[in-house]
Amino acid sequence: MTLSTHLRRLGASVVLTLLMVLGAQAEPIYSFDTTPGKLPKTVIPVHYAVELTPDFSTLALPGVEIVDVEVREPTAQVTLNAISTSFASATVDDGAQQADVTLDAAAQTATLTFPKPLAVGPHKLRIAFTAQINKFGTGLFIVDYPTEAGLKRLISSKLEPADARRIFPCFDEPAFKASFALEVTIPRNLMAVGNMPVTTEEPVADNLKKVTFAPTPKMSSYLFVLTIGELERQTVDADGVTIGVVTTVGKSGQGRYALDSAARLLAYYNDYFGVKYPLPKLDLIAVPGGFGGAMENWGGITFFESRLLFDPAVNADSARRGIFGIIAHEMAHMWFGDLVTMGWWDNLWLNEGFASWMATKASDQFNPQWQGWRSAYGGKQFAMSLDARRTSHPIQQPVADHSEATIAFDAITYNKGQAFIRMLETYLGEQAFRHGIRKYMAAHAYGNSTTADLWQALEAAAGKPITGIAASFTEQEGVPLIVAETRCNGDDQILSLRQDRFIIAPRNVDVSALPVHKWQIPAAVGPVVGKPPEEMLLQGSAEIPAGTCGEAYKVNLGDIGYFRVDYGSGSRAALLKALPQMSVDDRLNIVSDSWALVQAGRDEPSSYLALVDALDIGDHRVVWEQVISSLANLNRLARDRAERPAIQAYARAKLRPLLDRVGWDGSGSGDDDITLLRASVIRALGDFGDETVQAEAKRRFAAFLQDPKTLPNALRDAVTHIVGLDADRATYDTLLALARKSTAVNERVRYYYAAAAARDADLARATLALTLTDELPGTLVPGIFSTVGFSGEHLQLAWDFVRSHFDVLLARQGPGFRDQFVPNFMSGFTDEAHAAELANFAPTQSTSGGRLMTARATESIAIAADFRARALPAVDDWIKSRKP
User: Fold this and answer.
1) pLDDT for 884
2) How far out from the chain centre does Cα 780 lie?
3) In the prediction, which pLDDT does 111 show?
4) What pLDDT digit, counting tens, does each position of 563-574 carry?
5) Three-state SS across 384-442?
6) β-bridge mates for residue 874, sequence order
7) How far apart are CA 738 and CA 704, in angstroms?
8) With pLDDT > 70 as the criterion, what percentage of the chain qualifies?
9) Is 103 helix (H, G, I), strand (E, B) or coil?
């Protein structure tokens, strides 16, 4: 549906809907005054009326805002957030007083000081300012993207956690909820999309128009959205809401799958949460650059284009899985995060953990064939690997400032949060859990909340205490370990369970000095086959009957629990013997825990490798992908070491029969486990130096250049990656030409990354030079460096380049490049010298967030160095003594 059609349909119903939305805002139970944060709470925003006139050429962002505030105690100073903003004037109450403005760049604040104190009660601030449009993906930013008609430019916003202050001065903390009314003046040929529907468009001078949006409900500033460009929109009505997909011109047809998915999800969430989506419209906005994921702006979710659009000509069928998942995640935020918002970033997991859990739950509801929880195991494993380290943090973590808020978006917040919620839902029961969520939503709608508010609602609904369970998993860091050992008492078997803490640390670290944690662990325990598991709550140690002597008894049946299990030799032998009888989830759990125990030094590599040897070649995709991941880890750590040839040869020997089974051109629907496994194993064999696979990939790529239909979409990423690894100059130039020619974001990503994977050092230097040009979208630059470093194996070359051009790259990439990218990239090294170099790299030490990330990265380096020294010789010995 076009914008003009949408405006005609709105009519008087918009006014009625808004009155209902704004009038229904219940007072939150949350204590505003005790919310952490940096801004004083003597002045509270109630409503913003913002006028912006973005300049697409100069990147200036002049504006005027009137902020209705409530002064809670007399004060002559009003402090709000602003960064990279100049102030022309700041007055109060129709010019009654003019303020002096003091800027604090480090704190990102502007303090307005008036000649006389403002009295308690309502006031109106009027601020005239000029902000700036950024070239990196925070605040309001530009995206230059290729089209058939040449290069085009749009602007869009990305404000979480603390970048609304880059667009207009505001109280930029989540507890300061207010309504927002926006007007923008833009060229007449462009479309503007915001949180709410457009109410008027009026022509003004110089071929411009003024676009006015309806006011939003009460919301946090980071949920504000604005996208402007040559856009088109298709819509559908669902449950009284207009759902739209907004794309650049010519791509709206690729949004049909997203549109249909969003309509189904809206009805499902309306029912699940017990509170209907309260805005009159919900747009899904495809942005062809600027940032790599998606952002849950209320009423206008922005997505990196390739995460939202589906084009059967260039997308693998399985891409629908990722599209559905990210839409489900972001739409869940319309309730968890937007309607009910955490009071401060220490409770970020209330947003992200719940949205991740809800997305997988919704995926299982609508696409059970995808086996969402099984496919999501990798995220849980990644979170557990980080959580086992000394530098881990609780799910509910202290956050001091905006730099720490930015780095809080990590696997602990998302994936551990998701895993814990799944475990808790299983423990309470699905119906009781949903009833508790509905109570929580109803109590805190349009307000802010804490984790304690959620536990209170769930306990009331379930009728049994959960605070102790929840606190043990959310208020302390770490992964529980259950040590499980069996012993026989005549013909009967007894299973002893005791708690410990699972830790991955170098051998020279005294882990006994770490805090001792205890958990209340919901666990499913029982025989591998036969009777249903026993659901128990392990609070310390326990002994339970475990069938007959020698029977295979497993802890964490179904792999729902967030903990590791270390079995005694007798239990382990029985479980390995029963491996073929286990469910896929339990087999995956055994294999994953076995590898983790090797990483932690609690077991020998030979034990894990013997388990890998025992796996059936016909086992499920997720089991083999776990094996591929562990072999890839060994291969990476063995770079420049004598053990590498043996590790690669073993990996090829294990995986080649797997490829023989699934085949290059075997059966598969295009969106099934065989198809996904085929791509994974081909790519892995290419990485492990399988010459036959490399030759076949080159042959197929050459045929693709003549006729693209000869290479299935599902194999294009794997084949181009392998071709890139061994590329000569001609092949490298071909890959770049394909990237430059395409207007599809996912194709451009594919070919640029394949070129960046080149093992030839001269080609790697050519790729690195591209990062300083305008050719590469800024979104891709961090991934290009990582691909050069890790796939191309030019870590030192890439790091030297980053260090030499750091100031330029920082200006182009923004603060995340300093605080997050650099430490993450450096964690690929495995020696003390690079750990010391990172620790002494001044830019990453300039913020508290950067210092935290640096500490985590240096620990990663130490763990990798220790594992190389400890495990690789043992792996080499086992491989050489193994009889295939």
Assistant:
1) 60
2) 16
3) 98
4) 999 999 989 999
5) HHHHCCCCCCCCCCCCCCHHHHHHCCCHHHHHHHHHHHHHHHHHHCHHHHHHHHHHHHH
6) none
7) 12
8) 96
9) strand
| CB of 829 closer than 8 Å to CB of 790 | no
* Residue linked to tokens 């917040």: 413
C-alpha dist (Å) from residue 837 to 26, 505, 708, 829, 845:
53, 21, 46, 11, 12
**CA 865, 866, 868, 869 torsion-angle sign:** positive
With contact defined as beta carbons under 8 Å apart, do 349 and 474 qualify? yes
Catalogue all structural domains in the chain, each as residue range(s) with its CATH number. Answer: 1-229 (2.60.40.1730), 231-339 (1.10.390.10), 341-474 (1.10.390.10), 480-586 (2.60.40.1910), 643-881 (1.25.50.20)
Give the whole-angstrom CA distance, residue 442 versus residue 424: 21
Quick check: 165 and 172 in contact, CB under 8 A? yes
Q: Are 824 and 790 in contact (CB under 8 A)?
A: no
* Rounded-to-integer distance, Cα 609 and Cα 595, Å: 9
Q: Are 347 and 336 in contact (CB under 8 A)?
A: no
Distance of CA 628 to the CA centre of its chain: 23
- Give the span between the Cα atoms of 393 and 850, in whole angstroms: 15
Is 470:424 a contact under the CB 8 Å cutoff?
A: yes
**Starting at the edge strand that comes first in sequence, how are the strands of the sheet with 479-489 ordered?**
541-548, 492-502, 479-489, 564-567
CB 352 within 8 A of CB 370: no
Residue 567 has phi, psi (to 5 degrees) of -95, 145
Write phi, then psi, for 570 (nearest 5 degrees): -65, -45
Contact 875, 607 (CB under 8 A): no
Tokens at 626, concatenated: 């776990």
Residue 59 and residue 103: Cα distance in Å, rounded? 21
Alpha-carbon distance of 256 to 260, in angstroms, equals: 6
CA-wise closest residue to 141 among 237, 54, 206: 54
> How is residue 192 written in tokens?
């503007």
- Measure the CA–CA gap between 768 and 765, rounded to whole angstroms: 5
Give the closest residue to 482 by CA, choosing from 380, 575, 561: 561
Residue 45 CA to its chain's centroid (Å): 30
* Below-50 pLDDT ranges, the chain: 1-30
Is residue 51 annotated as part of the catalytic site, yes or no? no
- Work out the end-to-end distance of the chain between its first and last CA atoms, rounded to an integer number of angstroms: 63
Lookup: tokens for 172: 């930029």
Residue 10, pLDDT score:
32
Q: Judge whether 257 and 323 are in contact, CB under 8 Å.
A: yes
CA distance linking residue 694 with residue 675, whole number of Å? 19
> Starting at the edge strand that comes first in sequence, how are the strands of the sheet with 553-555 ordered?
534-538, 521-527, 553-555
What distance lies between CA 537 and its chain's CA centroid? 31
Helix (H) / strand (E) element for 769: namely helix 761-770
Active-site residue identified among 65, 330, 643, 696: 330
Query: Whole-model pTM?
Result: 0.94
CB atoms within 10 A of CB 48: 25
CB 273 within 8 A of CB 437: yes
